Amino acid sequence: MAQKLQALRAFFPSDWTDAKEQASVGNARALSAIFNGVDLNVFKLLNSCSSAKEAWKILEVAYESTTKVKISRLQLVTSKFEALKMSEDESVLDYKREF
User: Fold this and answer.
1) What is the pTM assigned to this prediction?
2) To the nearest 10°, the Cα dihedral for 87, 89, 94, 96?
3) Quick one: which of 4, 52, 96, 99 is 20 to 30 A from 25 by CA?
4) What's the number of domains the chain is made of?
């Protein structure tokens, strides 16, 4: 039991150095920004995270697609851009709608 109390003692803010306190404040701010920037379903994945880095890793896995999918999407956008041309009888508004 005494060993557990010693391990817990390190977490009290009165024992922190200035660097640890600044890191803790930065982590809390980053975690708050992440929590406020996601919808409820994603928040359910993140609510058990105690560090911003841990939450960020979960977000990377949730939102990052595979390399093949990224290349495919990029090729699709590139081909749409290359095919985009305004005809002489087309108004600027009509052209803008296509884009």
Assistant:
1) 0.53
2) 40
3) 4
4) 1
Which pLDDT tens digit goes with each residue over 73-84? 899 999 988 888
Write a three-state SS string for the chain: CHHHHHHHHCCCHHHCCHHHHHHHHHHHHHHHHHHHCCCHHHHHHHCCCCCHHHHHHHHHHHHCCCHHHHHHHHHHHHHHHHHCCCCCCCCHHHHHHHC
Q: Which domain holds residue 42?
A: 2-98
Q: Is the pLDDT of residue 67 over 50?
A: yes
Please tell me which residue, 5 or 55, carries the higher pLDDT value.
55
Token code pair at residue 71:
């290349």
What phi-psi label fits residue 38: left (phi over 0), alpha (psi between -120 and 50 degrees) or beta? beta
Do the Cβ atoms of 46 and 34 come closer than 8 Å? yes
